[in-house]
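Example record

Each entry pairs one chain with its bound ligand, glutamine.
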Amino acid sequence: MNYRLHLVHLYSSHMNVYGDRGNVIALKQRCAWRGIELSVIPIEPGMAVDWSDFDLAFFGGGQDSGQALIARDLLERQGAGLRAAIEDGLVLLAICGGYQLLGHYFLTHTGERLPGLGALDVYTIGGKRRLIGNIVVEARLGEGAPVRLVGFENHSGRTYHGAGVRPLGRVLAGHGDNGEDGVGGAVYRNAFGCYLHGALLPKNPQFTDHLIGLALRRRYGAAATLDRLDATLELRAQRVMLERLV
Ligand code: GLN
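C-alpha cells for the complex follow.
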C-alpha cells in the first residue's frame, strides 16, 4: 500500500528558531525511507487552510516579536478549524513559542498579553530570567517503555498546566515547562507541546516514528503499520547526550 500524508508547517518564516525546521525534515525523511510520501504545506499569515485535508501539523518556536506577529492570525484565521482538527485527532507537534500559543495566552516578560488558541489547557507567564540549556524529558510514547528525549531549551515563558492536558513527561535534566514542578511538555489527544528545540525529532527518532505512526493509523486505520527502520546513529548520538546530562 502506498501511504501518503499531508503536513501543515505553521508560520514557518516567523516561527523557526534553533533549527526547528529540522523537525519537518526528519518527519519527511523517515517517511521517505519507508516509501511514505509526506507533502509539506507552509502556511503564512493570511493563508486559508482546509484542516480536514491534513494529517500532521508542525508549529515551531519563535521570539516574542515573531509570536506577536502571528498570534492574531492564528486565532482569527486558523482558530476554529485548527481546534476542530485537534479534537478530531490531528497529529500536531508544537515547540516552545508555538506550544505557548496553543495554550490560553502568553503574558510576555514586558507585560504584553498574546492571546492563544486555547486548544491546550495551559497558560504561560514570561519571567525575567530565561530558562536555558540542555534538557532531558522522560516520556511515555504509546504502549512501549518510556523514552528519554534530549533537546535544548531557551525560554522566558513559564508554562503551567490545567486539568485538560496530561504531561508529556518528567524532566530529568534542565528546566522544563516552568522550572518548578518537573513537568516537561503537554499532551492532548494527538497534540504535543514542549520546550525541546534541538531540533527535537532528528535527535529523537522514537518520537518521530511515534508521530508518523499516529498519523498513519488516523488516516488509514488501525491496521496501518509502520515498517521498522534503522536509527543506530541517531540513537548513539542520543545516548551520548543522555550519559552527559543524566
Ligand atoms: N519567546 C518565547 C519565550 O521566550 C518562546 C521562545 C522560543 O520559542 N525559544 O518564552
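DSSP finds six helices and eleven strands in the chain.
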